[in-house]
Structures are given as structure tokens and as C-alpha cells.
């Protein structure tokens, strides 16, 4: 029985939710904590970049930050039955490719759309248009890939941590781009995403009070 891992996160922000889904899938005990101030000590000793998530793992004594790196760590350390990964090449490397695409191609663009559409103090139509188009494009990349491969998941017919990593930001589509009819425009994506959304791990994490909007930190 492993000791409880601390996951730092608060509210519905995507990156801690992503890590929670992997913890849940692997059946690891964890608790979600909201740091008092993510830009100050003691949190910046966990993540010098002052952002969420970060984890403390008492089983190894390791403290880690950056959601993609945390996921790779959890998989390498704890996915001993290869539930969420391939043990064959090149599928194992392709899983990393998709995770890196999520980290660099999905997260930042979806995050910028949310920023310019919802939080920025001025309305800048050209910025909203640029990031809105990127969100649609990234969704279209997955749609076209699944259509071409005729597979259930991103890498063949096995669920991996890469599929799951995309879930939290896609779950924000209705919030950041409500006018995008993704069920109609990207049906292969829609079938894949709805399958992921229906997983018990995803349902459990999305329902957690720590990840709801009213949570204060
Ligand atoms: N690349 C980082 C991004 C981290 C990130 O931007 N986290 C957001 C929440 S999803 C955050 O902490 N925002 C608060 C802030 O920027 O001050 C990761 O994936 O861990």
C-alpha cells in the first residue's frame, strides 16, 4: 500500500485535473491541496515557475512540477501492469509524441483562448480569433488522425496516458468556444472524447469538490 501523494491544484484549471485522472486510473491514494500562494514560498520550492500542478510523493521523497513530467513519472513508477502505456516500440515513443503535443500544442493555445476571451481586461478580437482558430485546428488534428488510423485511441486500440491528458482542456470547450459545434464538425474526435469522458476515473475527478469553480485559494 503506497503512501498518499499530495497533488497541488485548485478549481477547474486543466493541468492539475489531468494529473488527478492518471492518479485515479492507477488507483493511487492522493489528496488535492490548494496552496496559500503559488507565487511565494513554500510553494515555489516545489515549483519554481509558481504554477499548478506540483506533487509531493512521500513514497519516493520526490517533489515534481509540470503536468506532463508528473504524468511520465507516475507512469514509469506506478504503472507496473502497463494499464496506460505500451511496452512495445514505436508505440511507447508515439505515446510520448502525443503527450508532448498535448503539452505544447493543446494546453497553451486553449489557455490563451480562455485568457483573451474570459479574463483579459480588453477585448482583442484578433487575439480571440487567432486562439479560437488554433483550438479548432488542434481539435481537427485529432479528428483527422482518428479518421485516418481508424483506431479507437490515439495510438492504436489501447487507451494510454496520452489520450487522458487531452481530456481536461477539451472539457473546457463549451466554456471557451461555445459557438464551436464539435459534435458536428469533428465527429471522430467527438466519439473519442465522449468515450474518455464516460470513464469512471474522469467522472470521479471532474466531480471532486476541490476542482469546482467556487473553490477559493
Ligand atoms: N505547463 C504547465 C502549465 C501550468 C499552468 O499554467 N497552470 C495554471 C493552472 S492550469 C496555473 O497555475 N495558473 C495560475 C497562474 O498562472 O498564476 C503544466 O502543464 O504544469
Automatic annotation (TrEMBL):
It comes from the Eukaryota. Belongs to the GST superfamily. Residues 88-217 form the GST C-terminal domain. This is Glutathione S-transferase. PROSITE patterns: GST_CTER (PS50405), GST_NTER (PS50404). CDD domains: GST_N_Ure2p_like (cd03048). Residues 3-82 form the GST N-terminal domain. Coiled coil: none annotated. InterPro entries: Glutathione-S-Trfase_C-like (IPR010987), Glutathione-S-Trfase_C_sf (IPR036282), Glutathione_S-Trfase (IPR040079), Glutathione_S-Trfase_N (IPR004045), GST_C (IPR004046), Thioredoxin-like_sf (IPR036249). SUPFAM superfamilies: GST C-terminal domain-like, Thioredoxin-like.
